[in-house]
Amino acid sequence: MRKIRSIGLFGTLTACLLASLPAVATPPPDVDTLVPLCNGAYTGRFTFDFGNTTSTATVVVNTTVLANNAVSPPVPHYTLRSQAGHRNSPNDPWTFETTQRQGENQYPPAPAEAIKFVGRSSTCELNAFAIIDVVCPNGTVDNRGKQQNWIGCGL
Asked: How far is CA 66 from CA 13, 42, 80, 117, 132, in A?
């Protein structure tokens, strides 16, 4: 019985080549979500934009309330909260940047925006968190929240 040694050598060379390649980076877990508020009277929007360069990582959190053009409810009373967080490793405490915007009888002129810009490392973690509270036309409060983490900041 004759063995073909070139297949074994090819397999060994392939394994060595694959082992020498850098690990595949975790893609940014971006979010752009519309949620109905007050049974569709309004629409909430959560936008989490994660990104990185070779040395830094960022998260931009935007939260807003939009008019639903299909219905014409009264202009809402709302509270928007956007929070961008970071920690260097799982054992470190979180640090946060938070923006809160409130309004009554108007739609937000701009989203509530929070930004976190940090040095990139394999143990870095970024967090995006947002809450929308809207007083509905019937007087009840609709509360929606969204959260997303990025462990490793793309490394």
From this structure: 57, 6, 12, 28, 11
Which residues neighbour 60 within 8 Å (Cβ) at sequence distance 6 or greater?
47, 48, 49, 84, 113, 114, 115
Residue-level length of the chain: 155
How do the pLDDT tens digits run along the chain, 155 residues long?
444 444 454 444 444 433 433 445 789 999 999 999 999 999 999 999 999 999 999 999 999 999 887 777 888 899 999 999 999 999 999 999 999 999 998 899 999 999 999 999 999 999 999 999 999 999 999 999 999 999 999 98
Which structure tokens are listed for 37?
Answer: 């508020």
Where would I find the beta strands (DSSP E) of 6-140? 31-37, 42-52, 56-67, 77-87, 95-103, 112-119, 125-135
Phi, psi of 16 (to 5 degrees): -65, -40
* Interior/surface letters 31-51, b for 16+ CB within 10 angstroms, e for the rest: beeeeebbeebbbbbbbbebb
